[in-house]
Write a structure and sequence with these properties.
Helix 2 crosses helix 4. The strands form 8 sheets. The chain has a 7-stranded mixed β-sheet, sandwiched between helices. Helices cover 41% and strands 21% of the residues. It is of the alpha+beta class and 508 residues long. The protein folds into 2 domains: 246 residues, ATPase, nucleotide binding domain (Nucleotidyltransferase, domain 5, 2-Layer Sandwich); 133 residues, ATPase, nucleotide binding domain (Nucleotidyltransferase, domain 5), CATH 3.30.420.
Length: 508
């Protein structure tokens, strides 16, 4: 039997996952590393930390699994998107990586859109330039660290730095490259026009592959260090969202994934590039060759529920500790006692600002409609419903641009709640399912490795062999009708409150 490895360079740690050819997960290991915040709203990591964690996680997986190195057919990479790793001509890291959640580049984003021209930029990249993306970080370095910029020879994304360390090859793939806003997303190649307009040398960009393509092979030095075999093929892999799409089986028209982690991500497969004219959605290349995906983000999805638990759920947390019951279970049981729609109480989940459909760092979390009838049960349920409304915002944008929606696949910590899954099905008005796989991005990276190594004929075939639906939830017609009445009210609140959000920010 052939075995496959997926490696995820995440925000908190490196995870190595081992599966067999049938898709069964055999072993995994995660090694954490630090996050640096040298200034408020800045976020950086040391690529050397990623490398040491990757080596250790590989060693742990191989040791615990007992799988022989020569039985492993391929390795795939995934990880946090949008980060900037700068290397000199000798391949040495010039500074710590500026990460996806770093907010220092607002002025650079405006300059990029102005320099290229907003409409032309959107035509080429299909996305606006946002502070988290890679291109504005390169411009920031030019403006603020010219001594570093003068030594740059290559720009890599986080997982692609690990690829370089594993194989000695400078390479990336189209899904992750889409998040640099330097890729012509429709043509699936670096945009010479954008690079020239921004005065970024084309030679700095690594060769760009499709996600299942072999990009390099494990070097003898790395083999001796990790226990992997020399010559093991390493495929392109994917950015964490595209690889997660593969890991959720979202590789055919009509399929959408809803991931409820700290943030909430709605992700849909498309046969052709589709752009929201107003740039509210992300449109990136998919990890499926010659296919694309659209994506919307709620910044505080599970994060809203966690905030409520920490700020107002001390009693439930205490009871949970004494009884051994997850406090979230206790909270959702209380929420179930409140009626659908919470008798007019509506929650806006903008605790960290918002991304989709309002890219607004000034947006604030809000409870609207409180009356004397409302109690804690209503507030808990309103949080769950408010996150669902926010994700529906992305779903409605999908519909606006013609993306078919037949089934939503729920994953992430929040999706473990049957009640929250039912709310999502009712708010979305679609069938909601869960699948047998919970590993997401590293699992998708392993499947992509299998395609590149010839274990599977294609990405859809890999998903068909490995992924099964385990649970189906249909919307309850009465609940759906109720939410359809409240959703327009929810939609009206942000535009009405936007001036107040800005005013409060100015005061602070």
């Amino acid at each position: 039997m052939s075995y496959l490895i997926g490696i995820d360079i995440g925000t908190t740690g490196a995870k190595t996952l081992l599966i067999d050819g049938s898709g069964r997960v055999l072993e995994s290991a995660t090694v954490e590393y630090p996050l640096y915040t040298p200034r408020p709203l800045w976020a950086e990591q040391d690529p050397e930390d990623w490398w040491q964690a990757t080596v250790e996680s590989i060693q742990q997986v191989l040791a615990r699994s007992g799988v022989a190195a020569d039985e492993i057919a391929g390795l795939g990479l995934t990880g946090q998107m949008h980060g900037m790793v700068l290397l000199d001509a000798e391949g040495q890291v010039l500074r710590r990586c500026i990460m996806w959640n770093d907010q220092r580049t607002g002025a650079e984003c405006e300059w990029i859109m102005r320099t290229v021209g907003r409409e032309r930029f959107l035509d080429l990249t299909l996305n606006p330039s946002l502070p988290g993306f890679t291109a504005p970080k390169i411009i920031w370095t030019r403006e603020h660290e010219p001594e570093v910029y003068a030594r740059v020879a290559k720009v890599l994304l986080p997982k692609d730095y690990i690829r370089y360390r594993l194989t000695g090859v400078y390479a990336t793939e189209v899904s992750d490259a889409s998040g640099t806003v330097l890729l012509n997303v429709s043509r699936r190649e670096w945009s010479r026009e954008v690079l020239e307009a921004l005065d970024i040398p084309y030679e700095w960009m690594p060769e760009c592959y499709e996600s299942p393509e072999v990009t390099g092979h494990i070097t003898p030095e790395v083999a001796a260090l990790t226990g992997l075999r020399a010559g093991l093929p390493v495929v392109g892999g994917g950015g964490d969202q595209a690889a997660g799409g593969v890991g959720n089986g979202v590789v055919a028209p009509g399929l959408v994934s809803a991931t409820l982690g700290t943030s909430g991500v709605l992700f849909a497969y498309t046969d052709a590039p589709r752009r929201d004219p107003e740039g509210r959605l992300h449109t990136f290349c998919h990890a499926v060759p010659d296919k694309w995906h659209v994506m919307g983000v709620t910044l505080a999805a599970g994060g809203s529920f966690r905030w409520f638990r920490d700020a107002l759920g001390q009693m439930e947390t205490h009871v949970g500790l004494l009884s051994g019951v997850d406090p979230y279970q206790i909270l959702t049981a209380e929420a179930a006692e409140a009626p659908v729609g919470c008798e007019g109480l509506i929650y806006l989940p903008y605790l960290s600002g918002e991304r989709t459909p309002y890219p607004d760092p000034n947006a604030r979390g809000t409870f609207f409609g409180l009356t004397l009838r409302h109690d804690k049960r209503h507030m808990i349920r309103a949080v769950l419903e408010g996150v669902a409304y926010s994700l529906r915002d992305s779903l409605e944008l999908f519909r606006e641009i013609g993306v078919p929606i037949e089934q939503v696949r729920a994953s992430g910590g929040g999706a473990r709640s049957p009640m929250w899954r039912q709310i999502l099905a009712d708010v979305f008005g679609t069938e909601l399912v869960t699948i047998n796989i919970t590993e997401g991005a590293p699992y998708g990276a392993a499947l992509l490795a299998g395609v590149g190594a010839g274990v599977y004929a294609s990405v859809p075939e890999a998903c068909e062999q490995a992924i099964r639906i385990e649970n189906r939830i249909e919307p309850i017609a009465e609940n759906q009708a109720r939410y359809d009445d409240y959703y327009p009210v929810y939609r009206s609140l942000y535009p009405a409150l936007k001036p107040a959000f800005d005013a409060v920010t100015d005061i602070e």
